What does this fold into?
Amino acid sequence: MADSKPQFVRLTGHRAFTQRLVLATLSGKPIHISKIRSTSPTNPGLAPHEVSFLRLLEAVTNGSVIDVSYSGTTLAYQPGLITGTVPGAGTSLSNDLIEHTIPANNTRGITYFLLPLALLAPFSKAHMNVRFSGPGVITSSTHSTGDLSIDTFRTAILPLYGLFGIPPARIELRVLSRSCPGPGGRGGGGVVELRFASQVRLPKTLHLNRKPGRIRRIRGVAYCTGVSASHNNRMITSARGVLNQLVSDVHVAAQYDPAPLVQEKGSTMKKKIGIGFGLSLVAESSAEGVIYAADVVAPPEGGVVPEDIGTRCAYQLLEIIAQGGCVSAAAAPTVMTLMAMGSEDVGRVRLGREVLGREETIGLARDLKAFGAASWGIRDADKEEDEATGELIVSVKGTGVGNVGRKVA
Amino acid sequence: MPSALGKRKAPPAEEDVVDAQEALRRHFEARFKMPAGIAPCAAPPSKKQARDEDEDGEEDDGDSDSGSDHSDAESWDGVSSEEEEDDDSEEEESHVVEVVDHTKSSSTSITSLMSKKELKAYLSSRPPSHSSAAQSDSNPKKKKADESQAEDSAAFLANDLALQRLIAESHILSAAGGNSSHWQSSAAAGTATNTRAFAAGRTAKKTTDLRFQALGAKDSILAQSKMPMSMRKGIVSHNTAKEAKRRREAKENGIILEREVKKSKPSRSKKPSGGRGEREVGAPGVGRMRGATLRISAREAEVLNRPGPARRGGR
It folds into this structure.
């Protein structure tokens, strides 16, 4: 039953682009975004990564209509059904994958694409198997745009899906090739495969309002691409120097990869691209499901010692732990969106003040309201006798939309 | 003291301190004699190298001792650690360049890197599920102290490679003088062959050959395959005579030795094959064939004459 004139949700600006598109796809409401970088004289309109994300959306959904204006500053999106990997429709029978290439002028890390895709995947009709390849896949975290690395995504974000009844054991994130950002922060030669096989009807209601507990152990991955493998050791040593005084159980895995080769446009020659190193630390708490993560990478122009990266990452992790709450700032949008897409029940989550007070989180709350979800309830966490925790309990009422493809009529 | 003339002298206080250290070291070594095997340590570089630097301004090749000696003339900080982690402290005075070596793996690499199990959980493609990771952590900590098997149970001993090797090579090692509590071994330790240079290497050759044979080598590399027949016969007869003499003397003196391993001659070519499954091809079903004669024993004749199960056909 389509209306003659669909009521668009009207939003402006390029901020939270993927988040808005994901909400539109999940709720089924058409969206109209205008004034996308309309004031920028040099790069007006959609950025290359945004265009790439639109292509990805087109590939994983069926029946979606995307209208971009000539200048690229206006977009109208009418979502279709999230189908995932249906054999025959865009996926080859041999490997059952959707191949998505990312252009060489991309500056965002691959988690920019993976985070919204992982939000859509539990609600898709079939398994969501996507392979990202091409001259623009950056698997490490990015210096300028602050994207997460895939190690953080895999160890800190994906396990949170388990809290919602989406088994993380059926999610697989294969990194076939690693790459840091290329020169100027754009381009990279990584290859990443996401196989999301846990589709659910509705995510479980989350009740994560207890105290976050104490940090029990710290794990992490130190990765080096195209540089000497001793950088891993140096980063780990300097990070341990900071963290071992606080937690005794600190173990970091070291990953070394040679620099990936990327085919240059217009020639058959391959170029080494994506050289760098970085550290991703994840702190697990005694309470189940409370994970804090920090991610630092060397800038693409270089000039930073691994020891600095290690200490900076350790301090960043400590800052994130100091912000408190049961969900860190990086995972907050994922968790809040999943709560909002749950059953019509009130879920509660404990957030730190700085996490909730971020532009991103407040923006998400406003967007959800624009899409017709209920507003969030915010109250202070119960004050303990000794400490005023300063944390807030946010109550989110789910919309009950869930997976349309799995609806039992 | 050639450099005492003019130029820059090292301050006398430094020399006193260093001399005191030297005196102490000499006193200690005189009192506690160093065992012969330990080589004397390298001479402390303080005096000579400090003087060299003063004169020639040579660059120090990464010896931090001189640097710390030079800077702390009055207070002795102790020997600075070999592995230097701070790489941005370049000392201005006297051209000391601190060399930081990151090529060898530091000691923290063993402890900071994760066990294989954890690596599998964290570097594989699946997201780690934290509850299972927690369980796997606690299990190895709860060591199975109440082991049902004693430490020296047969199963463990059979798998103890070092022990099994020792047992197998014990004859070689004893002959080389390893067992000082046995008269024969300690006597052998004093012989010329076992006190020569590289005697340990010669026994090592024999033990290695034994290990190869255990691993599946056909022949021993140390066995002499080609020898004049008379020489071989002489050696073999000497060995048998020696062994026979040992057994005889022991028997006469009432000493119990290990059981004799009788050398078996090649068996008779034609075994009495009266049983099942031992028949040659083409041999008759009963009895023994010798030349043109077939000998059937009485028992076999009895079996033949018995009215057995009704045979098909008359013939």
